[in-house]
Design brief:
Elements: E1 4-8, E2 20-27, H1 30-38, H2 40-44, E3 47-50, E4 56-57, E5 62-69, E6 74-79, E7 83-89, H3 94-103, E8 128-129, E9 132-133, E10 138-145, E11 151-155, H4 156-159, E12 176-186, H5 196-204, H6 212-226, E13 234-238, E14 244-246, H7 247-256, E15 262-266, E16 269-272, H8 274-280, E17 287-288, E18 291-293, E19 300-303, H9 309-327, E20 336-337
Parallel strand pairs: 2-5, 3-5, 4-20
Antiparallel strand pairs: 1-2, 6-7, 7-12, 8-9, 10-11, 10-12, 13-19, 14-16, 15-16, 17-18, 18-19
Helix pairs in contact: 5-6
The chain binds uridine-diphosphate-2(N-acetylglucosaminyl) butyric acid (EPU).
Uridine-diphosphate-2(N-acetylglucosaminyl) butyric acid binds near residues 129, 275 and 334.
Length: about 350
């Protein structure tokens, strides 16, 4: 473990943006992390914690010490009659972790297959897909307090999870480094196949009595059909959040656009499919040289190779302005911008 200088971050962000880190170090356990944090370079520079780099748009060189979290390990912490507490190191690749959980017959994460990123980042934005969010399976996490250099535990309530939100994105931003995440998983399958696309995919495959592995495979097939593989086309998954609006705003939009796609959050609030708003505003598949809006999913911005983060940022600003002008709804970015 040594701190390097002027390192390209291209291999470390799924958009494939070629910016430089002033300082860069990779840590593989908590002790190394604490050592690094005590170093002069850490004390005298800003810190930038990097997980899988899959929810990140780098618009400039990073004038900081970048700490790449590579703390690995998957461990059964408790084995109860019905359930298991399964821990993952922060640097464990999320999809690998889900696959290992299935191999261990620990169920509940199958709907979250193939989400890019790592275990440590999963609670930051409460990742979710196909009717499941990690908060539904989460037991606690361990995080290093950057002031005291002590590990602290956060239970579900302490994380203040919301839609793509947690306390670590808001009031505790920049104050902790997540080192381990523990999930409460079930020994017997409790499937959630209510999300339309999963039902359709299982039906197409002729599966009427699915196992968790079948659900995982269905999710993988759906994601592969719609979302670009970051190994082939740079991207960060959904670039925007689906906006939540009140019933009266929804009705106003519906009066002009009766086909708008919306899901009920509660009686008064509805989540709009941002992908629909963007597509219907004419952006889907729009390509500007080396970057653009994905052809199969308008929520995803892509780098075909060699684009600059600031250009992709400008594209996102243009989309936000266009959607606001058309529907009166302001989209929020889901990805972190540097
Ligand atoms: N739609 C369009 N055009 C598009 C894309 C979507 O009209 O180009 C409409 C369709 O009607 C579709 C609906 O939007 O039925 C919903 O689309 P989809 O099922 O693809 O889901 P999403 O709302 O676009 C969200 C998450 C995804 C997650 C999927 C599946 C957010 C911001 N995104 O996308 O998460 O995989 O649901 O659960 O909540 C991510 O966060 O990076 C991500 C990929």
């Amino acid at each position: 473990m040594s701190i390097q200088q002027q390192i390209s971050l291209k291999p470390y962000n799924t958009f494939g943006l070629d910016v430089k880190a002033k300082y860069f170090v990779e840590v593989t356990d908590e002790h190394q992390l604490i050592e690094v944090l005590k170093s002069d370079i850490a004390v005298n520079n800003e810190l930038f914690i990097l997980g899988g780099g899959s929810n990140l748009l780098l618009t400039k060189d990073v004038d900081a010490l970048v700490i790449k979290m590579s703390i690995k390990a998957v461990q059964v912490l408790e084995d109860f009659e019905e359930e298991v507490l399964l821990a993952g190191g922060a640097g464990e690749e999320w999809h690998e972790f889900v696959m290992k959980s299935l191999e261990l017959n620990c169920f509940g994460l199958e709907n979250l297959s193939l989400i890019p990123g790592c275990v440590g980042a999963s609670p930051m934005q409460n990742i979710g897909a196909y009717g499941v969010e990690i908060k539904d399976r989460f037991e606690y996490l361990e995080a290093l307090n950057l002031k005291t250099l002590k590990i602290e535990k956060f239970d579900n309530a302490a994380c203040e999870f919301g839609y793509r939100e947690s306390v670590f994105k808001r009031k505790l931003k920049g104050q902790y480094i997540i080192t381990k995440v523990v999930f409460r998983l079930s020994k017997s399958p409790k499937l959630n196949t209510s999300y339309g696309a999963i039902e359709v995919e299982l039906k197409n495959q002729g599966i009427s009595n699915p196992t968790p592995k079948d659900v995982s495979n269905a999710v993988i097939a759906i994601r592969q059909s719609k979302l670009p593989d970051p190994k082939e086309i740079g991207n960060s998954g959904s670039f925007f959040k689906n906006p939540v609006v009140t019933l009266s705003v929804l009705n106003k939009i519906k009066s002009n656009y009766p086909d708008v796609v919306a899901y009920e959050v509660d009686k008064q609030n509805f989540k709009l499919a941002a992908g629909w708003l963007i597509e219907n505003a004419g952006w889907k598949g729009k390509t500007i040289g080396t970057y653009g809006v994905h052809k199969k999913q308008a929520l995803v911005l892509v780098n075909y190779g060699g684009a600059l983060g600031k250009d992709i940022y400008k594209l996102s600003a243009d989309i936000i302005a266009s959607v606001e002008e058309k529907y009166g709804v302001k989209l929020e970015r889901e990805v972190n911008i540097y």
